Automatic annotation (TrEMBL):
Pfam families: EME1-MUS81_C, ERCC4, HHH_8, WHD_MUS81. It comes from Xenopus tropicalis (Western clawed frog). Residues 228-238 have a biased composition (Acidic residues). Belongs to the XPF family. This is Crossover junction endonuclease MUS81. Its cofactor is Mg(2+).
Amino acid sequence: MPGEITYGRKRPLPACPNPLFLKWLTEWRDSAAEKNLKTQFVYQKAISSLKKYPLPLNSGKEAKILQNFGDSICKMLDDRLEKHYAECGEYMVVLNASSCDWAKKKKTGGKKQREYVPQRRSGGYAVLLTLYRDTKSPSSRGYMTKAELQKEAQPLCDKSFTLTDPNSKYTAWTSVSTLIQKELVIKTHSPARYSLTEKGLELAQRLEEAEDQGRADGFPRQVQASSNEEEEQEEAESETNPYIHGAAHRKQELVTELRRNGVNFDVRKLHIGDFLWIAQEKVQPVPGQLRIPQARELVLDYVVERKRMDDLCGSIIDGRFREQKFRLKRCGLRRPIYLVEDHGSAQHLSIPETTLQQAIVNTQVVDGFFIKRTKDVRESAAYLTIMTRYLQGIYSWKCDRSLRPDASSCILVEFKDFNEGAMKNKAQTVKEVFARQLMQISGVSGEKAAAILEKYSTPASLMSAYESCSSAEEKEKLLSSVKCGKLQRNLGPVLSKTISQLYCTKEPLS
């Protein structure tokens, strides 16, 4: 007789260890299915793999170990996770098992999902409090503009509303879209005006009460709520000091580091470069004269152009990169330095990392600039500090040749003359305008434009040469044998033909 069949207790399903990743993958799958895209099957395979994995994942990159998770999906998860952090603070939200579509269906009368509450000192938190405090002000207009909101909310937020963090392409301002989606903030007019809804006003009031209570208790308090799935140089006896271009706000952090390193510097407007070193003359009173002679300022042969990786990317796209290099070559200082500062991962930029690396190498090999790579602002400040100490040692025993030709001397230009000569919008000669015009043609570098100008210094001289040609074919080959660069290579028939078409075609260019 067969033994009696026994039934054990059914083991409950484990809680979902990666609810956010599962939720986002499901959203992408459903969106692809609505558009009838085959990627829906890719997302479904990834969902199946994720459901089988019992451990929590801290990033999309970690999910690479799972089957059906490629580079594309992992990057999408990382980007979405960064956006979630920007909106809700850096806290991974752990949901109840009932939130996962593979767990048991939620029973009637189950635990009700509580409202969305932004993490303390996150972007959404700062925006809600700022708008609420504005409503309590007697001078309130009932709304705030984007610029006003960013300025007033910044002290309440740990992240910047205008600058991205390393390894991220989001700012604290990203959270505003979530507040609008949650119907906590309303956006109207153009330019945009932001104000609180009734629901947002109620939440902001509770946040303010919690903030007041936290100050009274001596520690910060967070409004208790469980997030739903969507929370988420130099003459003898002279001083050599660096001079800094003071136009950009982000240089303030570097200025702080230089002060910490004991570097004496001045902040002035430079028409080219970001940093340079000046030898200040130490003058002595002249017997019989009432006033002490004015000290001269002589610029050393070093100028630094600082580029953060995201700045470099932007300057390549809009053409500033090539123009700045061209102007640095012509500024009169013989030792230009490109200080390239890393800023998070290059994969978040709009240009491939290989293209950026190639641009940096070309700047050193082709243009002859010295390239210095640093990992952050502190390392950049350390490099500038070391350079200052080095130049002080090099130039401390030298003097201006105009004063003592027989002594150890060097030829330097005065700062006033240098800065005026480097002005971008000063009156230009026909030759300079012609050079800029040629450099707008794809493939024409500064060296190639200079080679053409050596033979034809003005557009009129080039046009005369074209008119003397007997055929269209001769016009196309006119510039092909022009020697360019250090290697004296030919300009080539392709560029020669392009330039001839530009200057010889009377009809509109197609």
